[in-house]
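#structure-requests
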Amino acid sequence: MGAIRLKDGLVASLNQPGGNVTGVTDIVTELGGKRLSLLRDLVPQATTAGFLSGDSSYLSYEEQRSEILAAARALEREIVILENA
C-alpha cells in the first residue's frame, strides 16, 4: 500500500486531514518544507542545512528531493543532500 499524499486528494491538508486517514507512514514528502521551516525558526542564523536521504533507489527519492529543494529555495536557504550509500 502506498502513502497517502496531498496531491492524491485523499486528505485536505496534513494539519486537517478530515475523515480519510487510513494509516500511518514515515514516507511523507510533504513534510520536508515544514521541517525546514521549523529548523529556520529554531536556528534563524543558519543559512545552510543538511538533508539525509536514502539513495536514488529509495521509493520516493525524486519526490522527496524535489520537495526539499523547493522548500529551501522558498525559505532562501541552501540545502546539502547527503545520500545513504
